[in-house]
Amino acid sequence: MDFTRIDVLFKLAGVGILIMVFTQVLNQAEKKEQAQLLTLAGVVVVMIIIVKLIGDLYNTVRSIFNIY
Questions:
Q1: In angstroms, rounded to a whole number, what is the distance separating the alpha carbons of residues 9 and 27?
Q2: What letter does residue 29 receive in the DSSP assignment?
Q3: CA 63 to chain centre
Q4: Cβ contact 42:15 at 8 Å
Q5: Which of 26, 48, 55, 63 makes a 20 to 30 Å CA pair with 39?
Q6: What pLDDT is attached to residue 37?
Q7: Distance between CA atoms of 64 and 68, rounded to whole angstroms?
């Protein structure tokens, strides 16, 4: 099992925690629209990271099975 990608989990968790804290701060400041936009931006950032990981997985599978 490859544990070199554990940093990606920490990165995703860090983004989630930061987004959660900033969203709570914006909600307390009665800026709900900005909080929703921040949450949406966080989801987009996480999805970009996940799509890159899926691309890496696809390339690894292709190289293992010699598929061109």
A1: 27
A2: T
A3: 25
A4: yes
A5: 55
A6: 96
A7: 11
